[in-house]
Write a structure and sequence with these properties.
The complex is a heterodimer of chains A (593) and B (154). Chain A is built from 18 helices and 18 strands. Chain A is α/β, with parallel strands linked by helices. Chain A folds into 4 domains: 74 residues, Ubiquitin-like (UB roll) (Roll), CATH 3.10.20.740; 84 residues, Alpha-Beta Plaits; 133 residues, Rossmann fold (3-Layer(aba) Sandwich); 198 residues, Fe-only Hydrogenase (Larger Subunit), Chain L, domain 3, CATH 3.40.950. In chain A, the strands form 5 sheets. Chain A has a 5-stranded mixed sheet with strand order 2-1-5-3-4, sandwiched between helices. Chain A has a 4-stranded parallel sheet with strand order 12-11-14-15, with helices on both faces. In chain A, strands 13-18-17-16 form a 4-stranded mixed sheet, with helices on one face. A 4-stranded mixed sheet of chain B has the order 2-1-3-4, with helices on one face. In chain B, strand 3 and strand 4 form a beta hairpin. The two termini of chain B are 20 Å apart. Classes of the chains: A alpha/beta (593), B alpha+beta (154).
Chain lengths: 593, 154
């Protein structure tokens, strides 16, 4: 342990701890803009400077490890003046149109400026002289260089967490900017639209592209029937933007709020998550049969899940030769969309052209996914507008709803029923667990051999998880799997996905089925979730997801009554002709830059 | 525009396919072709298994690693204080008159590019210019005129 003094208080911390972290132990707050718990040290914003006794200059506390006997002061005149000037200099190059900014009141730079309560500007305003780019090309997010303070959190996120590096630091000095390859529009580079950079941007330089006004217009239009679906991970995070602590489940209140906002029907993406399990589980079993029994060499294994649009685009850019290994299943959002304007319209006797289909997602890549030309199986745009968890919170505030005092409410019927298996889609390992609960039962006629259906080896925050399930006591139709060991793997965060893909490319991936989610922690850590994010917050959301599962009446996808009904009334059986028409898709190769 | 062909592959073989080889590979391409095309940068990214944005980021940091089309002969005129005091303006004027281009432009035949540059370390023999990698110093309009005439005949 290393002993040091911070503001005359003694503290002992492990070797290698930064001064910033040691101060945090003493509950002394040092402001930072470039530092982030999920990312490596950058030390470039200089807001966290502190005074070290005996040192000639101020030191950056985020980038300085503690040493024995160190004496640190975080609140001297020298420190205050330096910080104030640093923030002033950042502001001199920042388009501070705060009242019009999407990040107003949720901006780290604004909070700091507020703390220092600036009056007159000391430095020249350089914003007018710069020819900043505002890139609106992506359907998922906006990159506004006039608000960028070049802290490079986004660059580190894209490289360290996602292995993409769609953006990097270009040019130098006053021309320095965060740039894609040769300043190409973000819609035309290797970006997966995962939005992890949006989650970590301390200003309004990276924000989701919002569709709130379009959704209000649809709600107010008396000719339109507006249906809304909510993704599993939204219900365990929405509360954070409405005054709750991380990890609170607000499912019932959320459903009530959506009804009060004026949606005609409040339905659940969990329904189509269950449907995904039926389709994808069947697809896996068919692939296994063709490969193992029929000896079909053309069958691509391992099969990869296809729920995460960021992961799909990652594959299209980086590993196009393995596109046949992706499940052909659309994501739950898009399955829901295709059914909303066909099955649901028919059941409710509605004109599909009058239906507006909205989804609430923990994701910004879903906005891109809904825009894909493949996603028009109903004859219309299957999902018209995608809102993030954050945007829903904004709408709830705009409508003046007293969220905390709302009664719990239940989803509407037809496509609103769900199971615990669907809820856990929101956490890494959840799709795998849900698939195993169903597939094992189809093959053996028995429940998965794990206590209380909790398949613990596939749970948790480890980057890559592996599990082997021995299949015994098969029913007649699946006898060929008797004694087989089903090998599965799970990865979350594209840096971990890349580890599995590298193995696959080298022919060293021994798996049959692999679940991959683009975001750290899965959808609970999605690019559309409340800001801030860190491992502690994500773990709390994950805990809430599994609590939600335990509290469900039904916990296996194939027992969802709405799913059983849709196969009886409309789709016939999993992977039927109709299923393929509406619920399955294909992928396209894209450039790797 | 030049075709990059096998050049990047050869340079990657020579310098090794590691991140540290990025600079020497880019420098060698520029030495041969005077600037980096998008195609060349994408190829380098592929060979080194790094992102193209990172290659562009590195290239755009260095003034001598150009990412815009440049002529066969890149003339860099020092614009910093000593050369300015010793008659850089007349040198630029002579070059503009002879080549019919302004700083930042390339001649229609793709032979010459004219750029102003920061200090190139020849203050004691100002004014100075670089043509590709060769310095020419203690220039007068007449001397520049002779030098350019030579290049025009190459």
């Amino acid at each position: 342990m290393i002993n040091l003094l911070i503001n005359d208080q003694k503290v002992s911390v492990k070797e290698g701890t930064t001064v910033l972290a040691a101060a945090k132990d003493l509950k002394i707050n040092i402001p930072t803009l470039c530092n982030h718990d999920d990312l490596c040290v950058a030390g470039n914003c200089r807001v966290c400077v502190v005074e070290q006794k005996g040192a000639r200059t101020l030191i950056a506390s985020c980038a300085t490890p503690v040493t024995e006997g160190m004496e640190i002061h975080t609140n001297t005149l020298k420190v205050r003046n330096a910080r104030k000037h640093v923030v002033e200099l950042l502001l001199s190059e920042h388009r501070a149109d705060c009242t019009k900014c999407y990040k107003n009141q949720n901006c780290e730079l604004q909070s700091l400026a507020n703390e220092f309560a600036f009056g007159e500007h000391v430095f020249l305003d350089l914003v007018e002289d710069h020819n900043y780019t505002i890139d609106r090309s992506s359907p998922s997010f906006i990159k506004d260089d006039s608000k960028c303070i070049r802290c490079q959190r986004c660059v580190r996120t894209c490289s360290e967490l996602q292995y993409i590096s769609a953006i990097s630091v270009a040019n130098k000095g006053s021309h320095q900017k965060i740039s894609s390859f040769h300043n190409r529009p973000m819609s035309h580079v290797v970006c997966t639209n995962c939005g992890q950079c949006v989650n970590r941007c301390p200003t309004g330089a990276l924000v989701e592209k919002t569709y709130i006004d379009q959704v209000w217009d649809a709600i107010y239009d008396p000719d339109k029937h507006v249906v809304v679906q909510t993704a599993p991970a939204v219900r365990v995070a929405l509360g954070e933007d409405l005054g709750y602590d991380p990890g609170e489940r607000v499912t019932g209140k959320m459903v009530n709020a959506l009804r009060q906002l004026g949606f005609n029907s409040v339905l659940d993406t969990d329904f189509s998550a269950d449907l995904t399990i039926m389709e994808e589980g069947t697809e896996l079993l068919v692939r296994l049969k063709k490969a193992l029994v029929d000896g079909d060499k053309k069958i691509s294994l391992p099969m990869f899940t296809s729920c995460s649009p960021g992961w799909i685009k990652f594959m299209e850019h980086k590993y196009p030769e393995f596109l046949p290994n992706l499940s052909t299943c659309k994501s739950p959002q898009q399955m829901f969309g295709a059914l909303a304007k066909t099955y649901y319209a028919k059941k409710r006797n509605l004109d599909p052209s009058k239906i507006v289909s909205v989804s609430i997602m923990p994701c910004v890549a879903k906005k891109f996914e809904a825009d894909r030309p493949e996603m028009r199986a109903s004859g219309y745009k299957d999902v018209d507008y995608v809102l993030t968890t954050r945007e829903l919170a904004v709408m709830i505030k705009q409508a003046g709803i007293d969220f905390r005092n709302l009664e719990d409410s239940n989803y509407d019927s037809i496509m609103g029923d769900s199971t615990g298996a669907a809820v856990i889609f929101g956490a890494t390992g959840g799709v795998m667990e849900a698939a195993l609960r169903t597939a094992y039962e189809i093959v053996t006629g028995r429940e998965v051999p794990f206590g209380n259906l909790e398949i613990t080896p596939v749970r948790g925050m480890e980057g890559v998880k592996e599990a082997t399930i021995k299949i015994e006591g098969c029913v007649d139709a699946w006898k060929f799997l008797e004694g087989a060991e089903l090998k599965v793997a799970i990865a979350h965060g594209l840096i971990n996905a890349n580890k599995i893909m590298k193995l696959t490319r080298e022919g060293k991936a021994p798996y049959h089925f692999v679940e991959i989610m683009a975001c750290p922690g899965g959808c609970i850590g999605g690019g559309g979730q409340p800001i801030p994010t860190n491992i502690k917050i994500r773990e709390k959301r994950m805990k809430a997801i599994y609590a939600e599962d335990v509290h469900m009446v039904r916990r296996k996808s194939h027992e969802n009554p709405d799913v059983i009904a849709i196969y009886n009334d409309f789709l016939e059986k999993p992977n039927s002709h109709k299923s393929h028409e509406l619920l399955h898709t294909h992928y396209v190769e894209r450039d790797n830059y | 525009m030049y075709q990059v062909g096998n050049l990047v592959k050869e340079l990657s073989d020579k310098h090794g396919r590691v991140r540290e080889s990025l600079m020497p590979i880019l420098q060698d391409i520029v030495q041969k072709h005077n600037y980096l095309t998008d195609e060349a940068m994408v190829e380098v990214a592929r060979e080194l298994d790094i992102s193209a944005a990172e290659v562009y980021g590195t290239a755009s940091f260095y003034t001598f690693l150009d990412t815009q089309v440049k002529g066969k002969y890149v003339i860099r005129v020092c614009k910093t204080i000593t050369c300015s005091m010793k008659g850089k303006s007349e040198i630029i004027q002579t070059l503009e008159d002879m080549l019919k281009i302004k700083p930042g432009e390339t001649t229609g035949d793709g032979q010459f590019s004219l750029i102003e540059t920061n200090c190139i370390g020849w203050c004691h023999k100002a004014p100075a210019i670089l043509i590709n990698e060769l310095p020419y110093t203690e220039l007068t309009p007449e001397k520049v005129s002779e030098i350019i005439k030579d290049y025009m005949q190459k």
